[in-house]
# Entry
Amino acid sequence: MDYITIALPKGKLFARSIELLQSVGYEADNVTEDSRRLVITNEASKVRFIITKTVDLPTYVEYGAADIGIIGKDVLLEEQKNVYELLDLKFGKCRLMLAVPEQMRRPNLTDYAHLRVATKYPNCARSYFQSLGIQTEIIKLNGSIELAPMVGLSELIVDIVETGRTLKENRLVEVASIYTATARLIANRASFKLKFDRLEKLVGDLRVIVEGENV
Ligand code: PRP
# Structure
Protein backbone atom coordinates (compact mmCIF):
# COMPACT_ATOMS: atom_id res chain seq x y z
CA MET A 1 0.00 0.00 0.00
CA ASP A 2 1.21 3.51 -0.86
CA TYR A 3 1.81 6.12 1.77
CA ILE A 4 -0.61 9.01 2.07
CA THR A 5 1.16 12.28 2.76
CA ILE A 6 -0.90 14.73 4.79
CA ALA A 7 0.08 18.39 5.11
CA LEU A 8 -0.84 20.11 8.36
CA PRO A 9 -0.65 23.87 8.87
CA LYS A 10 1.13 25.41 11.84
CA GLY A 11 -1.12 27.72 13.83
CA LYS A 12 -4.73 27.83 14.86
CA LEU A 13 -5.95 24.83 12.84
CA PHE A 14 -3.19 22.48 13.92
CA ALA A 15 -4.52 20.89 17.13
CA ARG A 16 -8.03 20.16 15.86
CA SER A 17 -6.64 18.78 12.58
CA ILE A 18 -4.57 16.22 14.50
CA GLU A 19 -7.55 15.32 16.66
CA LEU A 20 -9.86 14.81 13.69
CA LEU A 21 -7.37 12.65 11.80
CA GLN A 22 -6.73 10.60 14.90
CA SER A 23 -10.44 9.94 15.29
CA VAL A 24 -10.55 8.30 11.84
CA GLY A 25 -7.50 6.11 12.43
CA TYR A 26 -4.75 8.36 11.13
CA GLU A 27 -2.72 8.33 14.33
CA ALA A 28 -0.33 11.20 14.68
CA ASP A 29 1.19 10.49 18.08
CA ASN A 30 4.49 12.29 17.70
CA VAL A 31 3.20 15.12 15.58
CA THR A 32 3.46 18.41 17.42
CA GLU A 33 3.33 21.90 16.01
CA ASP A 34 6.71 22.91 17.36
CA SER A 35 8.36 19.65 16.35
CA ARG A 36 11.78 20.11 14.81
CA ARG A 37 11.02 17.17 12.61
CA LEU A 38 8.93 18.42 9.74
CA VAL A 39 8.19 14.99 8.31
CA ILE A 40 6.78 12.31 10.60
CA THR A 41 5.97 8.84 9.35
CA ASN A 42 3.52 6.38 10.82
CA GLU A 43 4.57 3.02 9.38
CA ALA A 44 1.61 1.13 10.80
CA SER A 45 -1.04 3.20 9.09
CA LYS A 46 1.11 4.14 6.07
CA VAL A 47 0.76 7.85 6.65
CA ARG A 48 3.34 10.59 6.47
CA PHE A 49 2.64 13.96 8.07
CA ILE A 50 4.35 17.12 6.97
CA ILE A 51 4.07 20.40 8.86
CA THR A 52 4.06 23.57 6.78
CA LYS A 53 3.60 27.27 7.12
CA THR A 54 -0.11 28.01 6.66
CA VAL A 55 0.24 30.10 3.53
CA ASP A 56 2.49 27.50 1.84
CA LEU A 57 0.24 24.51 2.47
CA PRO A 58 -1.82 24.71 -0.77
CA THR A 59 1.44 24.86 -2.77
CA TYR A 60 2.65 21.55 -1.29
CA VAL A 61 -0.67 19.97 -2.21
CA GLU A 62 -0.85 21.54 -5.69
CA TYR A 63 2.55 20.09 -6.60
CA GLY A 64 1.81 16.69 -5.06
CA ALA A 65 4.46 16.95 -2.34
CA ALA A 66 1.48 16.23 -0.08
CA ASP A 67 -1.53 14.18 -1.25
CA ILE A 68 -3.95 16.00 1.01
CA GLY A 69 -3.97 18.81 3.54
CA ILE A 70 -6.12 20.76 5.95
CA ILE A 71 -6.29 24.50 5.42
CA GLY A 72 -8.60 27.49 5.93
CA LYS A 73 -10.92 28.58 3.13
CA ASP A 74 -9.43 32.07 3.56
CA VAL A 75 -6.02 30.80 2.47
CA LEU A 76 -7.57 28.90 -0.46
CA LEU A 77 -9.40 32.01 -1.65
CA GLU A 78 -6.25 34.08 -1.37
CA GLU A 79 -3.77 31.62 -2.88
CA GLN A 80 -5.97 30.30 -5.74
CA LYS A 81 -4.06 27.04 -6.13
CA ASN A 82 -5.15 24.24 -8.40
CA VAL A 83 -6.34 21.67 -5.82
CA TYR A 84 -9.53 19.76 -5.08
CA GLU A 85 -11.55 20.94 -2.12
CA LEU A 86 -12.97 17.71 -0.71
CA LEU A 87 -14.75 18.58 2.50
CA ASP A 88 -15.79 21.45 4.75
CA LEU A 89 -14.46 20.38 8.14
CA LYS A 90 -16.58 23.08 9.83
CA PHE A 91 -14.05 24.09 12.48
CA GLY A 92 -11.78 27.13 12.64
CA LYS A 93 -14.60 29.47 11.79
CA CYS A 94 -13.45 33.01 11.19
CA ARG A 95 -14.21 35.90 8.87
CA LEU A 96 -12.30 38.28 6.72
CA MET A 97 -13.29 41.83 7.45
CA LEU A 98 -12.46 45.46 6.90
CA ALA A 99 -11.60 47.37 10.07
CA VAL A 100 -10.58 50.91 10.92
CA PRO A 101 -9.38 52.70 14.08
CA GLU A 102 -12.44 53.81 16.11
CA GLN A 103 -11.83 57.50 15.38
CA MET A 104 -11.65 56.82 11.61
CA ARG A 105 -15.13 55.33 11.34
CA ARG A 106 -17.16 56.89 8.47
CA PRO A 107 -20.85 56.52 7.54
CA ASN A 108 -20.29 54.96 4.08
CA LEU A 109 -17.76 52.50 2.68
CA THR A 110 -17.11 54.88 -0.22
CA ASP A 111 -15.76 57.35 2.36
CA TYR A 112 -12.71 55.07 2.62
CA ALA A 113 -11.73 55.54 -1.02
CA HIS A 114 -8.10 56.38 -1.81
CA LEU A 115 -6.88 55.22 1.60
CA ARG A 116 -4.23 52.60 2.32
CA VAL A 117 -5.20 49.06 3.37
CA ALA A 118 -2.75 46.76 5.16
CA THR A 119 -3.45 43.05 4.78
CA LYS A 120 -2.13 39.50 4.56
CA TYR A 121 -4.85 38.92 1.94
CA PRO A 122 -4.02 41.30 -0.93
CA ASN A 123 -5.91 39.35 -3.60
CA CYS A 124 -9.10 39.06 -1.55
CA ALA A 125 -8.85 42.70 -0.47
CA ARG A 126 -8.25 43.92 -4.03
CA SER A 127 -11.20 42.04 -5.48
CA TYR A 128 -13.44 43.16 -2.62
CA PHE A 129 -12.72 46.86 -3.21
CA GLN A 130 -12.92 46.38 -6.98
CA SER A 131 -16.37 44.81 -6.64
CA LEU A 132 -17.47 47.95 -4.78
CA GLY A 133 -15.78 50.26 -7.27
CA ILE A 134 -13.66 51.72 -4.48
CA GLN A 135 -10.05 52.56 -5.22
CA THR A 136 -7.54 51.86 -2.45
CA GLU A 137 -3.84 51.19 -2.08
CA ILE A 138 -3.18 47.66 -0.86
CA ILE A 139 -0.10 47.11 1.31
CA LYS A 140 0.89 43.46 1.75
CA LEU A 141 2.12 42.43 5.21
CA ASN A 142 2.81 38.99 6.65
CA GLY A 143 1.39 39.34 10.16
CA SER A 144 0.55 41.67 13.06
CA ILE A 145 -1.67 43.62 10.68
CA GLU A 146 -3.23 45.62 13.53
CA LEU A 147 0.07 47.43 13.98
CA ALA A 148 -0.19 49.17 10.58
CA PRO A 149 -2.86 51.80 11.43
CA MET A 150 -1.29 52.41 14.87
CA VAL A 151 1.95 53.59 13.33
CA GLY A 152 0.59 55.31 10.25
CA LEU A 153 1.46 52.65 7.68
CA SER A 154 -2.19 52.37 6.62
CA GLU A 155 -5.59 53.81 7.51
CA LEU A 156 -7.49 50.53 7.09
CA ILE A 157 -6.87 46.83 7.56
CA VAL A 158 -8.39 43.76 5.94
CA ASP A 159 -7.80 40.87 8.30
CA ILE A 160 -9.16 37.72 9.85
CA VAL A 161 -11.24 38.02 12.99
CA GLU A 162 -12.07 35.03 15.12
CA THR A 163 -12.98 36.04 18.66
CA GLY A 164 -12.68 39.80 18.07
CA ARG A 165 -10.14 40.15 20.89
CA THR A 166 -7.32 41.48 18.72
CA LEU A 167 -9.56 44.16 17.23
CA LYS A 168 -10.74 45.26 20.66
CA GLU A 169 -7.28 45.36 22.16
CA ASN A 170 -6.11 47.58 19.33
CA ARG A 171 -9.18 49.87 19.31
CA LEU A 172 -10.21 48.86 15.84
CA VAL A 173 -13.81 48.49 14.70
CA GLU A 174 -15.17 46.23 12.00
CA VAL A 175 -16.92 48.18 9.27
CA ALA A 176 -17.64 45.40 6.76
CA SER A 177 -17.55 41.63 6.65
CA ILE A 178 -16.03 40.23 3.43
CA TYR A 179 -16.57 36.47 3.86
CA THR A 180 -16.64 33.71 6.46
CA ALA A 181 -14.24 30.78 6.30
CA THR A 182 -13.75 27.35 7.88
CA ALA A 183 -11.12 24.60 7.61
CA ARG A 184 -11.22 22.49 4.43
CA LEU A 185 -9.77 19.13 3.42
CA ILE A 186 -7.96 19.55 0.11
CA ALA A 187 -6.30 17.07 -2.25
CA ASN A 188 -3.80 17.03 -5.05
CA ARG A 189 -5.70 16.33 -8.28
CA ALA A 190 -3.54 13.38 -9.40
CA SER A 191 -3.35 11.86 -5.90
CA PHE A 192 -7.11 11.91 -5.64
CA LYS A 193 -7.36 9.69 -8.73
CA LEU A 194 -4.38 7.46 -7.93
CA LYS A 195 -5.26 6.92 -4.27
CA PHE A 196 -8.99 7.21 -4.74
CA ASP A 197 -10.16 4.31 -2.56
CA ARG A 198 -8.19 5.36 0.50
CA LEU A 199 -8.98 9.03 0.12
CA GLU A 200 -12.65 8.43 -0.52
CA LYS A 201 -12.86 6.35 2.65
CA LEU A 202 -11.06 9.08 4.60
CA VAL A 203 -13.47 11.73 3.31
CA GLY A 204 -16.46 9.53 4.19
CA ASP A 205 -15.17 8.85 7.72
CA LEU A 206 -14.40 12.52 8.33
CA ARG A 207 -17.80 13.55 6.98
CA VAL A 208 -19.55 11.29 9.51
CA ILE A 209 -17.67 12.93 12.38
CA VAL A 210 -18.00 16.50 11.14
CA GLU A 211 -21.70 16.18 10.35
CA GLY A 212 -22.36 14.33 13.58
CA GLU A 213 -20.93 17.25 15.50
CA ASN A 214 -23.06 19.76 13.65
CA VAL A 215 -26.45 18.05 14.08
C1 PRP B 1 -4.97 36.33 13.25
C2 PRP B 1 -5.51 37.60 12.65
C3 PRP B 1 -5.71 38.48 13.85
C4 PRP B 1 -6.13 37.49 14.92
C5 PRP B 1 -7.61 37.47 15.07
O1 PRP B 1 -3.62 36.49 13.44
O2 PRP B 1 -4.63 38.13 11.69
O3 PRP B 1 -4.53 39.15 14.20
O4 PRP B 1 -5.68 36.20 14.48
O5 PRP B 1 -8.04 36.61 16.09
P1 PRP B 1 -9.02 37.11 17.26
O6 PRP B 1 -10.21 37.78 16.61
O7 PRP B 1 -9.41 35.83 17.95
O8 PRP B 1 -8.27 38.04 18.15
P2 PRP B 1 -2.64 35.29 13.80
O9 PRP B 1 -2.80 34.88 15.22
O10 PRP B 1 -2.84 34.20 12.80
O11 PRP B 1 -1.19 35.93 13.66
P3 PRP B 1 -0.61 37.13 12.80
O12 PRP B 1 -0.99 38.41 13.49
O13 PRP B 1 0.86 36.90 12.83
O14 PRP B 1 -1.16 37.05 11.42
Observations:
- Residues 94-180 form a domain with the D-Maltodextrin-Binding Protein; domain 2 fold (CATH 3.40.190.10).
